[in-house]
Design goal:
The protein is an alpha/beta fold. It has helices spanning 7-12, 25-33, 50-57, 69-82, 112-130, 157-164; strands at residues 40-44, 61-66, 86-90, 105-109, 136-143, 154-155, 169-177, 188-195. Strands 1, 2, 3, 4, 5, 6, 7 and 8 form an eight-stranded mixed beta sheet that branches. β2, α4 and β3 (86-90) form a beta-alpha-beta unit. The longest helix is centred in the middle third of the chain and has 19 residues, at 112-130. The two termini are 27 Å apart. Residues 7-11 have low confidence and may be disordered.
Length: 200
């Protein structure tokens, strides 16, 4: 995967700008509000594993992947320190080398908005390969109504509905403030809950 971002430099620095030090509050909210019960879940672009570890602590059977080996190393250490079992995979989200099976739930905090500009078809193929009829997914992205540079990549509502809507039914779409590290800048985001329909 190549997007012009020096991922190694970010992880070598200790704290990449997208790492907040705590699990996604929007993920926590959606799990509770939608009454999503522990099940097999895959996180796409897990980074240093904060959200994957939290999901495992809630009783989910977690597979988490990232294409950056430094991120996966940090994630493995985080999981071991927390005493949870997570299947950590070094893999390209747009070009999976092996089938992973189907998951009732997937989570993506910031992967889709980072890869969509250079391999959206590959990303959607992966989503279709890891989900089945009825599978739910939560995708968190930057919001084009508040583009900030430097800041997260942004997506418009129309782009989101067109791109993710090609494979999924959009169940809930709401604006929210992306989590930040203490003292960081708050960015506007999209929270998109999707479901794979039986016919696709």
């Amino acid at each position: 995967m190549s997007s012009g971002i020096d991922w190694d430099a970010h992880y070598q620095s200790g704290t990449p700008p997208w790492e907040t030090g705590h699990p996604s509050t929007e993920l926590e909210r959606v799990i509770t509000a939608e009454r999503i019960q522990p099940c097999r879940v895959i996180e796409l672009g897990c980074g240093s594993g904060i959200n994957a570890v939290w999901l495992a602590q809630q009783g989910f059977d977690v597979t988490a992947l990232d294409f950056n080996d430094l991120a996966i190393e940090q994630a493995r250490r985080r999981g071991a320190a927390a005493g949870v079992a997570v299947r950590w995979l070094l893999a390209d989200v747009c070009n999976l080398a092996e089938p992973l099976g189907q998951f009732p739930f997937f989570f993506d905090r910031g992967c889709y908005h980072a890869v969509r500009k250079y391999d959206l078809p590959g990303y959607l193929r992966t989503l279709q390969s890891v989900t089945g009829p009825g599978s739910l997914g939560l995708v968190l992205t930057g919001n084009a109504r508040q583009p900030v540079v430097p800041g997260p990549p942004v997506v418009s509502e129309a782009e989101l509905r067109s791109e993710l809507g090609a494979a999924f039914e959009i169940m809930r779409l709401r604006e929210f403030q992306l989590d930040t590290a203490e003292g960081g800048i708050s960015y506007l985001g999209w929270s998109c809950l999707v479901q794979r329909p039986a016919a696709r």
